[in-house]
Amino acid sequence: MGGETVQFINGQFVKGTSGRTFDNLSPETGRLVSVVHEASRQDVDAAVKAARAAVDGPWGRMPLARRCELLHAVADEINARFDDFLEAEIADTGKPRSLASHLDIPRGAANFKIFADVVKNVPSEFFQFDTPDGAGALNYALRVPKGVVAVVCPWNLPLLLMTWKVGPALACGNAVVVKPSEETPSTATLLGEVMNKVGIPAGVYNVVHGFGPDSAGEFLTSHPGVNAITFTGETRTGEAIMKAAATGIRNISLELGGKNPAIVFADADLDAAIEGTLRSAFANCGQVCLGTERVYVQRPLFEAFVARLKAGAEALKIGPSSDPATTLGPLISQEHRAKVLSYYKKAMDEGATLVTGGGVPDMPGDLANGCWVQPTIWTGLPDEAAVVREEVFGPCCHIAPFDTEEEVVARANDTPYGLGCALWTRDLARAHRVAAAVNVGLTWVNSWFLRDLRTPFGGARQSGIGREGGVHSLEFYTELRNVCIKL
Ligand code: NAD
Ligand code: 6OD
User: Fold this and answer.
1) Is 1's pLDDT higher than 50?
2) What domains are there in the chain, each with its CATH number?
3) Could you say which ligand is closest to the alpha carbon of residue 232?
4) Reduced to 3 states, what is the DSSP secondary structure of residue 121?
5) Is the confidence at residue 2, as pLDDT, over 80?
6) Which ligand lies nearest to the CA atom of residue 208 in the structure?
7) Model pTM greater than 0.90?
């Protein structure tokens, strides 16, 4: 560790021209992971121009079947270098090895295969119609790439969320310029080596490093050569990016924050609801956009649920990624930890009953410098309390009792967000009814984060704009062009 992380522009690894660097620190120990070279405006411009040349040149002219073969090769090469990607992702995030090896890296590879297959198999539309002269006309729709796509990513599932956008963008024939999070620059950079190895033409995949305002994020999203912007991150950042996209009327896809409810009815399978809520509240140290931070439990089950979730949270093993027994890693940074701890304090100031956690665990040796927090559960707060309304993005949840279905649907919907929801019930009719009534983009019934990559993914209200996944990604990454032929 302690190496350098550089830009990947037009098939070359380059430091860039800003002369500025920043430190990528381990969330586990605070030690230096790498020195990252920050891209200048000129570097971003070079990346956008390289991407444009690739779309107008070898990538744009490449037959679809060959493009798809290459994307399968990208996935195979990620898998061949699984351990390199795993180490890089763990170094940047500190997440448990079991999580990164089961979720982040395999999904990072799968995102290339699934969209190559979708693009090959989705037909476009055709209409025949009559004309007054009786000869008729035919219409068919062509899908063409949007061009240069800017991909701006967060730090919580770095490779997974980046390839979730890069996979379909490339499958559709676009070229991309990726701006990974400043917290997690490594796997996006490593992917450049994979692109070169399998023969993806130079300029198709570019990576620039830096921050948001007055840095690579803003330089990229405001660049007039960018035809579409796909962003995952905080709602407030989404607003800034939407404004940048307005200049030049560029398309946007926004996957933003959430304050996701779980609703546990009294007829639920309690074991399954506990297992699912332990994952949805605490997996990835609570840093999952779909994570549960509000749990509503029907009154007859309330006491038992709270006691069981407390026991489950206390059984989580906080520790370093190197320990196979670890189930809870650190938060991403000291800055994010300060934010999460400020919510822990706010909950108590607002009168919460602390069920478990609420502080910082004692960690030995070097780990004492890491970004650790305890998994935390509260009860007893009103629906207006800050930790019940605002996204914390940490390993915590508030549990509240409810009485009726109508009441809980209203409380679940009482938020500006609308990303995900988990329902726990054995009553199928109720599951269908409540799933239709909850105003979110994604509802899971008796499960959580069970992903079929062909399905629409995205949020309602302030949780986002647009859907990605399966054919829905084609809607964003291609332009539909109608051709009308008079016979
Ligand atoms: P963030 O918005 O702070 O940063 C995301 C990216 O945007 C980073 O690369 C950052 O450098 C860049 N950026 C920041 N300001 C910018 C600007 N003005 N112009 C251009 N780029 C800019 O988000 P984060 O802290 O990295 O991620 C956590 C957030 O992401 C949470 O709110 C979480 O809910 C959300 N998220 C949503 C989804 C989803 O699918 N809906 C998935 C994962 C994370
Ligand atoms: O599974 C996915 O495709 C996806 N986009 C997950 C997002 C998780 C948010 O943290």
Assistant:
1) no
2) 3-256+461-486 (3.40.605.10), 260-445 (3.40.309.10)
3) 1
4) helix
5) no
6) 1
7) yes
Compute the distance from residue 84 Cα to the ligand 1 centre, in Å. Answer: 25
Question: Contact 100/225 with Cβ under 8 angstroms?
Answer: no
Q: Give Cα 235 to chain centroid, integer Å.
A: 13
Is the minimum distance from the CB of 221 to ligand 1 under 6 angstroms?
Answer: yes
Q: Hey, which residues are catalytic here?
A: 255, 289
Q: Largest Cα–Cα distance in the chain?
A: 86
Q: How far is the CA of 362 from the centre of ligand 1 (A)?
A: 30
| pLDDT tens sequence across 30-80 | 999 999 999 999 999 999 999 999 999 999 999 999 999 999 999 999 999
Distance 458 CA to ligand 2 centre (A): 9
Pairing of strands 292-298, 228-232: unpaired
- Side-chain half-sphere of 118: how many Cα atoms within 13 Å? 28
Structure tokens at 48: 């956008």
The atom of ligand 2 lying closest to the CA of 164 is 3
CA of 107 to the centre of ligand 2 (A): 10
* Number of neighbouring beta carbons within 10 Å of residue 23: 11
Which atom belonging to ligand 1 lies closest to the Cα atom of 419? 41
Strands 32-37 and 21-25: antiparallel
Amino acid at 199: G
Parallel/antiparallel/unpaired status of strands 205-207 and 12-14: unpaired
Q: Given ligand 1 and candidates 232, 243, 392, which is best to mutate, with the most ligand atoms within 8 Å of its CB?
A: 232
* pLDDT at 166 > cutoff 50: yes
Residue 126 CA to residue 140 CA, distance in Å, equals 4
